[in-house]
Amino acid sequence: MSGLLKEQNNVPAHPPGCKLNVSDMMEKHSLQIYQICTEPVFISQKSMTWRWILAGLTIYMIDLCFRLFRRRCHVKLLGVQVYECQLICLKLLKEGFNAQPGQYVYLQCPHISFLEWHPFSISQCPTADDPSLTIHLRTNGDWSEYLKHYLLSGNDEKREDIQECSKRNVIYLSSSSINKRLFVDGPYSSCFEDVLRYSVSICIAGGIGFTPFASILRYLSIDVKHIRKMKRLHFFWICREVEVFKCFSKVLCEMFEMVWRKNHPDKFELHLYLTKKESWDTIKNILQDSFPFLKPRIQFGRPQWDVLFEQWANTYKKIDVGLFCCGPQRLNHEIKLLNR
């Protein structure tokens, strides 16, 4: 900036209002007297911009160095779980890692790329009893496909064995998988942390968008005091495949068991919607008898959002209601328009 801004260096010799050619001006304005002065001299102005950006730049550099150091901390892979619906569950252990429900992290696999960091919601936060964190991701791109093959492949395995292993719902715990290199950066805050701040919250998830709410439901199933402060939690989950429900069925059942055990069954309202038509025998075979709370709450189709929003507006007229949605862009856009 110092080269762009100029300032006059000889103001006493050339004050504002003086004239250089006095003879011409005297002919036109004989009654006025003008001061004779020299040519103005301009020099580059000293830049003071650094004073304004120094504090912010210093804080940014300190934060950048801290994040670079934190990213390179060792992360231990405890387990890999592959589901039939193209979902992968990673159980990781990072020393000194703490996170709040609703936060997310960045995941990097140096074997694939040293520059790519992908954000994923934390589906299970570390606790005093279990210091590990859990991440669920869907394999719908090149990076996630490479990650699945890298995690499930051993040094002496064939590609056919990897494909056969990925088709089954298995927990893969071999020495070759545990020694895989992964880096985690975070945690970072998100808007889903505010679910616990409202007395009435409406949570809408689409497909794998359930992951940020999974950590919140796990936290509520453990912290009984917080569920007592809440008036009601409305939860809607829309999926195409019933296998996705099974991936997080344990979390939902634990939440149901807790509210029934503490005599608060009206504080948690769950609605599950299947967009793909399935027979009840197929649903029963997938969910089996170990998840009795889920089968009665499964419906086909999609929710009638206009009717539901009108009902909520009449019920909670004088209450601040938190609305949270995580899912495909089409679902987020639809909920955003109805919330206006």
UniProtKB/TrEMBL annotation:
This is NADPH oxidase 4. It holds the Pfam family NAD_binding_6. Keywords: Oxidoreductase. InterPro entries: Cyt_b245_heavy_chain (IPR000778), FAD-bd_8 (IPR013112), FAD-bd_FR_type (IPR017927), Fe_red_NAD-bd_6 (IPR013121), FNR_nucleotide-bd (IPR039261), RBOH/FRE (IPR050369), Riboflavin_synthase-like_b-brl (IPR017938). It comes from the Eukaryota. GO terms for molecular function: superoxide-generating NAD(P)H oxidase activity. Residues 70-194 form the FAD-binding FR-type domain. GO terms for cellular component: NADPH oxidase complex. The keyword Metal-binding does not apply. It catalyses: NADPH + 2 O2 = 2 superoxide + NADP(+) + H(+).
